[in-house]
Amino acid sequence: MSDPALDSSDEVQVSENEYKPSFLEKALRKLPISVFNRDKRPVKVSACKAQASSDFYSHFIEKKTYSDEYRSQVLDFCGQQEPITFDKLFPKHKYRSIMRFDSGTYADVYKVRNPKDGKWIVLKIVRTVSKSLQKQLTSVSFSGTETFDDIFNELVISKALSKLHHRSFSEPKYLAHCYPVLLDAKLVKGNLPDNFVRGEKCEDTEESPQRNEPFSDYTGAPIEFVVFIMKYGGEPIWKMIKEKRIDGAQLLSISKQVTFGLAVAELCYEYEHRDLHISNILVKKTKKPYIRFHVDGVFYDVETAGFRACIVDHTFSRLKHRDTVYYKDMREILKSKKEDKVTLQHQVYKWMINETNNEWNLFCPKTNLFWLYYLFSTLQKSSLVREHPAVKKEFEQIAKQANNMKSTNEILDFIVQLTDGN
């Protein structure tokens, strides 16, 4: 009796036109493994061999993913031994509608009410993949994903900046309230469930919110995400400007808060943001007239004008913590940026390349000044600022100083003198 696994009925005739290997299989064939060498002539493929090939692909991908050293470090950081599911982390009976309100190149951002206290919390969700797998599957598009080593760096940076909200025993000379408070982080597996929705429609409105489509699974790799769970930092400043819910004096206060926040992190951690465009600044209303910053032991009270600034997205940031430098190598990223129209934002990227000489591990505080120059120069063009000549003049003066100084700390005294003089 013949072995059922080798029964001829399992064999199928596959012609050159009919056989269409998957996108992943095409990529895997480029690896130096003989099992993937298949000629283009019509061949007979047994079902058991096809299954074995599929199993090999899955085994190869899983091995590369689960053996990633930084994946283990991400799990340790998150206090996990294995990834958790979305349904277990955000059960539907507690989190009925998790609304997406922002998206970036590498992440989607959602907000939801914390069932414990009813306050908004923010979820930054990033698809993760093994760097080793990414390097070997060169023909596969990994657009919109982060490697485990880069996401681990961002986790460490986010936690360090979050500590600046309190004068900790280790860093008593530094205090800044303009970075997101990281509440928790988790490595999560599987697609997003249907309680994650697109838009900001409330559940009790007539129009039902559209469900968010799962992240595309281009590679067939295990579907894993890192979820940053943070306190709500506010709305994007560009949205407030567009809807005219803010005035020129308030924009000036927010810009000063950003400057002081950068100075604190720069001195405390040798921090550089490296991507501080207008979409990465949030604002939230506050009743406090002043916000206090501690800059190397010196106290500064900055007027809020009714708004508190929050600097977000540390994907490209650089920070030194306990003698270890955490950063993202931006050589390939900036090399691939091609714009039909050169904006000030893209000019800043070029300035950073020249300043760092593409050595992204090095501390180059001038990059923070590049972004401050961008910020003050961009906001001064707003009609909300142009309506107030005195405010516009102060924007221009600070932008000029940012372009001439070497570090953010140097500009603080100038801002204080300028504020006192006015």
Automatic annotation (TrEMBL):
One of its GO terms (molecular function) is histone H3T3 kinase activity. The keyword Nucleotide-binding applies. It is an enzyme of class 2 (transferase). InterPro entries: GSG2_C, Kinase-like_dom_sf, Prot_kinase_dom. Keywords: ATP-binding, Kinase, Nucleotide-binding, Serine/threonine-protein kinase, Transferase. Residues 95-422 form the Protein kinase domain. One of its GO terms (cellular component) is nucleus. It comes from the Eukaryota. Its EC number is 2.7.11.1. It catalyses: L-threonyl-[protein] + ATP = O-phospho-L-threonyl-[protein] + ADP + H(+); L-seryl-[protein] + ATP = O-phospho-L-seryl-[protein] + ADP + H(+). GO terms for biological process: intracellular signal transduction; mitotic cell cycle. Transmembrane segments: none annotated. Gene3D superfamilies: Phosphorylase Kinase, domain 1, Transferase(Phosphotransferase) domain 1. This is non-specific serine/threonine protein kinase. It comes from Leptotrombidium deliense.
